[in-house]
C-alpha cells in the first residue's frame, strides 16, 4: 500500500465522479499497464483478506477501499468475461460497498404502520379473534 498504491490513488481526484471514471478507463486502456495494476491489486487484496480485521489495517482501510473501487472500474471496463460478485473477496466487497455508499433496497417490501389499531388487531389475532385487513 505504501509503495505501489499511491500512484493509483492519485488517479482519483474528484471522489469518483464521471470525469474520474473516464480518466481511469483511459489510464488503463493500455493492456500491460492494466495487467500490472491487476496483479498488484490482487496481491494487496490477498494480504488484506488475510490480515483483516487486525487493527494494523486501520490507516490503510480508506486508501484500500479507493484502490478496490479503482479495480472495480477497470475490471468492469475491460474484463472480457462477466464476473459474479464472488470475484471480489467478501471483506473487500463489503468495504467497497460501504465506501461508495452503495445501498441495496427492496422496493417490493411492504410497510405496516404500528399504531394502536394495528396493535389491537395483533392482540385479537393472537387470541384467534381477528383477521388481517389489507388496505
Q: Cα distance, first to last residue?
A: 56 Å
As residue ranges, the low-confidence spans are: 102-107
> Strand tally, please?
0
* SS-based class: mainly alpha
Number of helices: 6
Please bin the fraction of helical residues.
55-70%
Overall number of domains: 1
| H and E string | HHHHHH
Write down the Rg: 23 Å
Mean pLDDT: 79
Largest sheet: none
Strand content: under 5%
Shape: elongated
Question: How is the topology of this model organized?
Answer:
Layout: H1 5-9, H2 18-27, H3 31-51, H4 61-78, H5 90-99, H6 116-126
Summarize this structure as a short list of keywords or feature phrases:
135 residues, mainly alpha, 6 helices, elongated
Walk me through this protein's architecture.
This protein has six helices and no strands. By secondary structure, the protein is mainly alpha-helical. It has one domain. The longest helix is centred in the first third of the chain and has 21 residues.
Summarize the structure.
This protein is an all-alpha fold and 135 residues long. Helix content is 56%, strand content 0%. The protein is built from six helices and no strands.
Amino acid at each position: 500500500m505504501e509503495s505501489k498504491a499511491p500512484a493509483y490513488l492519485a488517479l482519483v481526484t474528484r471522489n469518483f465522479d464521471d470525469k474520474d471514471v473516464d480518466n481511469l478507463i483511459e489510464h488503463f486502456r493500455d493492456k500491460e499497464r492494466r495487467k500490472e495494476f491487476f496483479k498488484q491489486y490482487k496481491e494487496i487484496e490477498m494480504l488484506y483478506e488475510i490480515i483483516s480485521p487486525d487493527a494494523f489495517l486501520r490507516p490503510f482501510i480508506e486508501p484500500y477501499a479507493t484502490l478496490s473501487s479503482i479495480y472495480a472500474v477497470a475490471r468492469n471496463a475491460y474484463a472480457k468475461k462477466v464476473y459474479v460478485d464472488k470475484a471480489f473477496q467478501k471483506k473487500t466487497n463489503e468495504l467497497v460497498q460501504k465506501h461508495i455508499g452503495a445501498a441495496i433496497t427492496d422496493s417490493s417490501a411492504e410497510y405496516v404502520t404500528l399504531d394502536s389499531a394495528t396493535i389491537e388487531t395483533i392482540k385479537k389475532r393472537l387470541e384467534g379473534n381477528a383477521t388481517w385487513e389489507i388496505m
